[in-house]
# Entry
Amino acid sequence: MAEELAYRRMLEWLAEDIPFWDVTSELIPEGCRCRAAIIAKEPGVAACVEEVAHFLRKMGFEVRVNVRSGEEFSGGDYIMEVWGDMRRLLQVERLILNVLSHACGVATATRRAVEAARRANSRVRVAATRKTLPGLRYFEKRAVEAGGGDTHRLSLSDMVLIKDNHLRYFKSVREAVEAARRAASFARKVEVEVSSPEEAVEAARAGADIVMLDNFTVDEVERAVRMLEREGLRDRVVVEVSGGVTLENLEDYARAGPDVISMGSLTHSARAVDMSLEVLEVERS
# Structure
């Protein structure tokens, strides 16, 4: 089902790229077949390989996947090999490379962040955010997962997350959490974004499942964790750090004792991994 969702999305993007006909690829005669490979030009972590392979198979190609999502690869590795209609392959070339390059870039950035955080705190999770490009959320969240990160919310329907602008309506953090508890299904967790260690304690006392320490310094995170421990609330809430976290300061934040560190940069700023599609053999009739 998930691969079918990705397939339909990629069909839409293909229609955007070929609104009428491909005036270049049609220089290749019908029925001409080829063998090609998608080749990594630098190291990285694979992501969305299965979705791209499914798309190619639905388009009539034979595909051999050599590197699966979550696996690391080196420059020069064949990520997958493809056999089939040469004209059609050249039509989808840029689409599949764009998806794979971006997804692998997200997975690679995630893997590096996870490795850095766990050097300092083996229990901490590195999570994505909803800072995904419209239309790309499925692929970007899959890529975070492939890189070893936590996907966080997939949509606004997943859980209650009370942020600063929601809090402007309420008189206090406590009132907002209590309102969420009354309205939310028993199956949904309630998270609240707080701006001080004192608000973190207030949110935990009110029954929040998760407190998000938003744009806290490392010292402020440590203070919030100590206050929750002192009040006997630490084991009742998940502590998430978000905002201002980079690969350079990630270990410092991890040492401060949160359960989750979320980073929008995993999706909105990940550098694409350089890849190419090369035709290796052409069968001329």
Q: What stands out?
A: The chain is about 40% helix and 20% strand.
